[in-house]
Amino acid sequence: MKTLRKSLPALFLFSMFFHGQVSCHTADSTGQKYSFREKLYMTTDRDIYIAGEKMLLRIFNTDGSGPSSGALSKVIYLDVLDKPGNPAIQVKINYDGRLGSAAVNLPDTLSTGNYLIRAYTSWMQNFPEDLFGYRVISVINPFKELSNITDSPPDDTISNKLSSRDVEPGLFNNPGDKATELKILTDKDIYGKREKVRLDLSVTCPEGKSEQADLSVSVIKSFLSDNDLNCLTCNADKDRKNPDLSGNPRHLPEPEGLLIKGTIYNKSTDEPLKDTDISLSMVGKKARCQFMKTNSEGGFIFVLKDFTGLKEIVIQPLEPVPAGTYVELQNQFLETYTSTGIPSFRFDSVSAGLINNAVIAMQINKIYESEIPGKRSDTIAAVHNFFGNPVRTIRISDFIELSDIREVVKEIIPEVVLFRKDRQPALKVISSNPYQIFNNQALVLLDGVPVNDIDKLLSISARELESVEIINSRYFYADYVFEGIISFITKKGKLSSLEETNSFFRQVFEGCLEREDFYSPAYDSDSAMLSRIPDFRNTLFWKSDVIVTDDETAEIEFYTSDEAAEYIIVAEGFTSEGKRIRSTLPLIVK
């Protein structure tokens, strides 16, 4: 394998841009420069949950003048903090500049109490926390002792970074602004079980004209809403100074996707590997590799686009280090977990029966969850090889059974030649250009991971191999040039066929949550109406991206469940002018 260095890798230039003398700055009215800011606002489908349920949320990015589609970051970090300020849940959410939505599992191990949710981007970690998005939820765990619960209103208020504020029901206008009205209209006053509900939403400005808005809408059991719980605002320090980010900000923005930052070290000396070519790859049947050169301190930054779920990553030098290496990754989440001052959980004994009803409903839905159609969003990006489509793909099952990969190469892959390099076996490809000769080893992959020990690779049983993909021309990646690519893919696709070396750093890494569409059954046929699958949803409906235009209302349709109860419709979001608006409307099902 041969690499040519013509310039710094593009990603490293990206890093230097933010680590050098240039930073993201704009100018205020006085002409003074201040660093680019992001500001988040969060809504959830409801305020009270049962441990084991999913919390549905929407995150808006606003600079104070309305939802922004020009956000700098494409990843949002979410902490669910308990009363002492310890993280009970930490997840990452994809953000497209306008919409950041997710379904977050609330483990059944959570204790009963109030939890503070805070949302922020990597770039926002350079600034005071008053720009973060905050939300308080209550979680009830009926299977744990309720010894830490008070039965009366708490005598403590939200303090420290958060404080209470008075909110006029139905409106979240800025002080001094005239009222902007968010209207919710239903087609009926009372509904039956499994009956269609039609909603119309419109926004009217003080002058009586219709206005655009971006909203989240939920329909929940009314006792699962607590208007007092989220009357929160952050106490911004008016005298604080803007941080100086012209030097070396610790947290870089993520305009393309998740950043993995860290340092790679030599195991025997504990010294960083300076100016060393390394790769990051994901274990799997698709080759997703990146290559770069570490800086003078052994540091590296990789960008992971469209990275969701749990995946194994491998970081290693392109040329093996005999003593082995180890890697220290930078924590992507905020590392300060000070007490948030959220109020004590209060349990209204009058509502005990209703809460018990919600617990039973949750358990019934869990039992029949396997009967619910797939809920994953169709917007999940397809995974492709980093090198695109191979020139040739060899399916091992199309040929007679061979003993090992050495025989596979010799018998059925004429484009690949086994030769000796520095007395060690190596693989090269025959160029598709008859006037071009490759003398160096190709980039050799096994289950998407670069392999240096070709001798071990060749000894893998052919029975474990599924296919081989070939690129028989020069492949350019940033300032790297590979004389062909040979990608071996096993049936399991888990890199289990090759013994790991001490140069491998292999770790399960969690990307962003996979987006889920809220499942709302449609009882629009006789068979659906007569279905024996019970429906006891605590959240009847949730939609995170409802757009109200200035010339027509937004129309929403959904069906009620099998449970007669009093529900509440909650619509919340921003107008195009940046006003926070919120409105509620009762919904009766008999």
Short description:
The chain is mostly beta strands and 590 residues long. The chain is 7% helix and 38% strand.
Task: Lay out the secondary structure.
Blueprint: H1 10-19, E1 25-27, E2 33-35, E3 40-44, E4 48-50, E5 54-61, E6 75-81, E7 87-94, E8 100-105, E9 113-120, E10 133-140, E11 162-164, E12 171-172, E13 181-186, E14 190-191, E15 196-204, E16 213-221, E17 232-234, E18 258-266, E19 277-282, E20 288-293, E21 299-304, E22 310-317, E23 325-329, H2 352-367, E24 392-395, H3 405-412, E25 416-421, E26 424-429, E27 443-446, E28 449-450, H4 454-458, E29 465-477, E30 480-490, E31 505-510, H5 526-529, E32 539-548, E33 554-559, E34 565-575, E35 580-589
Could you walk me through the main structural features you see in this protein, from its secondary elements to its overall organization?
With 590 residues, the protein is mostly beta strands. The chain is built from five helices and 35 strands. The protein is elongated. It starts with 9 loop residues before the first helix and ends with a strand. The model is unreliable at 1-34, 148-176 and 233-240 (pLDDT under 50).
